[in-house]
Amino acid sequence: MDSKKWDKIATGVLYFIAGVMILILAFLLIFILWNGLPHVSWHFLTSPAKSFQSGGGIGIQLFNSFYLLILSMLISIPISIGAGIYLSEYAKKNWLTNLVRTSIDILSSLPSIVVGLFGFLVFSISAGLGFSILSGALALTVFNLPLLTRNVEESLRSISGSQREAGLALGLSKWETVLKIIIPEALPGIITGMILGAGRVFGEAAALIYTAGQSAPPLDFTNWNPFYIASPLNPLRPAETLAVHIWKINSEGIMPDASQVSAGASAVLIIAVLIFNFGARYVGNHIYRKMTGTK
Amino acid sequence: MQNYASEDRYIKELDPKKHEIALSTEDLHVFYGTSEAIHGVSLPFERFKITALIGASGSGKSTYLRSLNRMNDNIEGTRVDGKIMYRDIDINGKGVNVYEMRKHIGMVFQRPNPFSKSIYDNITFAPKRNGIKNKKVLDELVETTLKQAALWDQVKDQLDQSALALSGGQQQRLCIARAIAMKPDILLLDEPASALDPISTSTVEDTLLSLKDHYTIIIVTHNMQQAGRISDYTAFFHLGNVLEYDITSNVFQRPKIQATEDYVSGRFG
């Protein structure tokens, strides 16, 4: 057979594979949204869950998910940026930094349930934090940090070395060059990675089951003092997140409308993750256009 | 390529009484790891003149240029031995503040590398970091440097636009403007026109000629016509040695060394 024919066959196969992928994704999305959206209402989004009766919502779980997300990003973003800058700009090529990189790669491929059990052992038991938002946030940091660090490192690395030379040749110090030239140019990539990381954290369940806990005690939304036990901001209270809630309803839910609540919560979770993903693309593109002046 | 005896050299001596020397190297060696890229080069560079460094690819001319403001410091495993004398100071010495030194010895690179900032910010970025805050002074600096780089008329109405939207030739002239905004003594240029089309090249050349009154310029070039057109002195690099250094017309019309003659007449390179 001639090469032209082969080319056509190969292209066809690639199209077919891509088509199958898209179909699976579309089927999943439509299935989840179709089943779940009818149960989503303002009441469902804002009211607390019920254990034995029908008509419960996901309000507290939704709040917990966001609070946990913010807390864990507050911890992991500064660390990952620092580590990423070090690895990309300062680390010398030797066995030690190779070891660090390999460790990060291994860490990023740890199963999340292992991270959860590690968090349970270290944060909940040894550090005495119990089932709490703080334990959960720390476990999520362990889970998310390797990927964020790698993302920061790759984003910085993708900036051409000629930009670094330009800064140095103007008499700027290395730190000034990194801080004022390289980081701003890498910002779209860094932010995109952070938002995608946020989406990943938002949908995470296994790492939280034994750290943030599986119960959502009622919250008093009138008292925002972080030291008050029922305060929404109290970082030491147990906090079941949306993803954990879905897992729990499906494994041991005894409310009459368990399947509806599960479907509705899944739909909300999927929508939130989609917003994170599209938001990442939009924000990344927007910053890039703003900085480079291209339309 | 024919083998030329590296002992066969002609290095013109510049009488310090008649020529003011802005920068000179004494027995400069550059090593990449264990291999020696520059085998002891001693050259003087006269003030307010253009000196061209020519030679085939891999002859070491860019490596030599990059050691003059110690840009090779940033490449792991590079070592530079020998003296680089600037205002009676050996700037290759240990106690030298490299960042401060680079404010006096600026550099423009082969590929235009403007920051992804506005045209205005590209020029004012480094001066601002050095404490110039007065808006009026900065505005003036932008105008004078862009005029010196022959770019002002084309961009004066779009100073707040991104530098990346400029053409390659304009970007390179912006990089020249950015370099001279630091008011350096010496300007090092590493094949500044090799990525540009002929028209942009000739604009950049005109720019350099007009800058000669205020700056000492050392330029690496692949293009022998370019060296002939703009430079006062020419150094011919061959395999990490300078085989001939003389006033430009001599190098091109009456070379004293066989290797130089073969190179400038296009027999290799």
TrEMBL record, chain A:
Keywords, ordered alphabetically: Cell membrane, Membrane, Transmembrane, Transmembrane helix, Transport
ABC transmembrane type-1 domain segment(s): 62-280
Membrane topology: Multi-pass membrane protein
Subcellular location as annotated: Cell membrane
Main location: membrane
Transmembrane residue ranges: 12-34, 66-87, 99-123, 261-280
Classification via InterPro entries: MetI-like, MetI-like_sf, Phosphate_PstA
PANTHER family (alphabetical): ABC TRANSPORTER PERMEASE PROTEIN YQGI-RELATED (PTHR43470:SF4), PHOSPHATE TRANSPORT SYSTEM PERMEASE PROTEIN PSTA-RELATED (PTHR43470)
Family matches, as NCBIfam families: 3a0107s02c
Similarity comment: Belongs to the binding-protein-dependent transport system permease family. CysTW subfamily.
The protein, known as: Phosphate transport system permease protein PstA
Automatic annotation (TrEMBL), chain B:
Domain ABC transporter: 23-264
Presence of the UniProt keyword Cell membrane in the record: yes
Keyword hit for Repeat: no
Alphabetical UniProt keywords: ATP-binding, Cell membrane, Membrane, Nucleotide-binding, Phosphate transport, Translocase, Transport
InterPro entries, A to Z: AAA+_ATPase, ABC_transporter-like_ATP-bd, ABC_transporter-like_CS, P-loop_NTPase, PstB-like
GO molecular function: ATP binding
Record-given protein name: Phosphate ABC transporter ATP-binding protein PstB
Source species: Agrilactobacillus yilanensis
Gene that produces this protein: pstB
